[in-house]
Amino acid sequence: MGSNGVTIDDSTAETSVGERDMISTLHESILGLILSFVPIVDAVSTSVLSRRWIEVWSSLSTLKLDDSLLFYGKKMQKEQFINFVEKVLLQFTNSSIQIFSLCLTSHQYDASQISEWISFILERRVEKLHIQYADKLFLSSNSLFRCNSLIELTLQMRCTLSLPISVRLTNLQKLNISGIKFVSDSFTYSKDITLSFPILKVFEARGCEWSIMQNISLQVPLLETFSIAIWNRHSNESCKYGTIKVYSQRLTDFSYEGDLEQDIVLYGSTLIRNASIVIVIDEDKEDKVEKLGFQAYNLIRQMEEVKRLKLLFYKGVADLHKDVLASAMVPHCFLSSFKVFQFKGFNANEDDLCLVKFMLANAETLEKMTIYPAFWLRYSDIDIGKVKEHILSLPKCSSFCVVEFSDIDNS
User: Where are the beta strands (DSSP E) in 197-336?
Assistant: First the structure.
């Protein structure tokens, strides 16, 4: 780690014992516990008090770095934050870190810089790792899949990750990934990839792109919750995807969202009690609805003992063109009683915007419109901020209508 960064002044002389404040007399383990509850920026700031405080904050087992946190009342500039992170990590060169969180939402960073930070943390025997980064990044699979200390792993990032033919993380209990694009390892190839997590209990993958043709076997004997939302950007007839196989005899909760482009095969799934299956019907696959129904049947029949089943075939408003809305008669309820409108799975395309415009222009009694962006927008290049501005600028028939936008994470 580089040495350039936020200046940490350790020249301040320690006060005498008689003048020392009560907090400074506490044992270092207690001081460390206190600092673990404050933002890392404030924890590092205590180093100006004395040399002893430097030793206290640098012994923390939890690091949460967030470029949106305030520093002296305002956000850090990009270079200032980078230098701060470098300075902090330098203090942990010879230490382990149990919990590490890196949230980058305010600036764009050099991909190699972020990869270096993550690799550094993985070498510190981290147990709980949380990374949130919206820009594109290539993450080293070697350092990630060799970190056996991991207990919880959360990756919310537009990251490309190559899968080796075999992965085994013996201590991993919870895996939550979103926005990851999985690709085949260019150095090794096998028709089957095995991911072995002996004590994993929760597997959640949302908005990931499984751009591989190999079969993926999840060896997860203790898995209880399996949730996957598959998004294949370049899905077409010429691209054949492999099968995802889940081996677990303790699976009780199952959730799937996607176009069934990839088969999901469950082994030992007799304990599943709760299941949610959302089939997304693309515009270019409308003539294959019957086939999708058969595929959905094959998926459902693997859950013989399910007690609560939610099955939804989801289709957007792709057929709702401008001319259709222009010639449409306004329903009577729009003029008398229609008060609440919720638009879930908003894709921010022209057809969706036409529908929103139609509602705002014709619903005289509308009081509240809530728009829930489709989850994949988080990983797209669409500027959702500009889309919001455009919608808020649209004319409204109802003078007391409030337009709200749900967070993409909650969609």
Answer: 202-210, 215-219, 225-230, 244-247, 253-258, 264-267, 274-280, 308-314
Q: Domain check: are 355 and 213 in the same one? A: no
**H or E stretch covering 163:** strand 152-163
Mean of per-residue pLDDT scores for the chain: 81
Angle at 145 between CA 243 and CA 240, to 5 degrees: 20
Answer yes or no: is 26 within a domain.
no
Q: Which residues face 372 on adjacent strands?
A: 344
Helix (H) or strand (E) holding 136: strand 128-138
- Please check whether residues 156 and 126 belong to one and the same domain: yes
Tokens of residue 154, six digits: 């959360």
Final residue before a domain boundary, out of 266, 291, 314: 314
pTM: 0.72
Give the C-alpha separation, 387 to 389, whole Å.
5
Query: Three-class SS of residue 401?
Result: coil
Please give the pLDDT value at position 228.
95
Residue 165 CA to residue 171 CA, distance in Å, equals 19
Could you tell me if 293 and 343 lie in one domain? no
Residue 227 shares a structural domain with residue 276: yes
Co-location of 310 and 360 in the same domain: no
Residues contacting 175, CB < 8 A, separation 6+: 152, 153, 197, 200, 202, 203, 204, 205
Answer yes or no: do 245 and 164 share one domain. Answer: yes
Bigger pLDDT: 293 or 270? 270
Q: What is the pLDDT of residues 277-289, one digit of tens each?
A: 988 776 665 566 7
Least confident stretch, 30-39, 140-149, 185-194, 299-308: 30-39
Q: Which domain holds residue 333?
A: 322-410
